[in-house]
Sequence to fold (207 residues):
Amino acid sequence: MGAVALESAGRATAAGGLAESPLGAVAKGALAGFAGTLALSVALKGAQWLARRGGAAGTRQPGGADEGAGIGAGEALAGGQVRPPFLDQSTELFAQKVATGLFGVSLAGDTRRATGVALHFVYGGCWGAVYGLIQASLHLPPAPHGLLYGLVVWLVGPVTLVPAMGIMPPPQRQGAREALLVAGFHVAYGFALGLTFDAFTRPGRRR
Fold:
């Protein structure tokens, strides 16, 4: 019986290609999360280019005209400045909130932008690590699982936590078009995450 069970497990592993240790799943999930974050960032930049070309409002970066001066403590704590499709600014504002709350300082524009990019990828990588553990355990179809997971990230972040921190307005105050745009960015993140993790865990790629 034991031999039969081992043989069946071996066939399932060869077919599914997802026999991962927890650490391996976390590492590959984090890398796939970086890829998903990159896909989201590309989508953001494209939407921002279209918005600026169309003369859309809300293109001002946090911190006003003098980017080198950073964001003042009062402005950072007031929040609510970031609107779609300029979501990359939300991580900049979060970095300044932390700097203001913990150290009482304003970050220079270049420092704020670099910190925001780093936080964006760390955040995406953390979500990817969790995805890796889930997918390595459940072996769900990667494309639909990734799409659904992206919606979960959207519900936890832009719908719940980010508005609670005063960084951006909640979906009901964004308008239907903006809310759908934000959801679409996160669906793109989840889709890229799922496909990348699947590529990392296919039998031909494991050593």
Q: What stands out?
A: Residues 22-53 form the longest helix (32 residues). The two ends are 29 Å apart (CA to CA). The chain has one domain: 21-205.
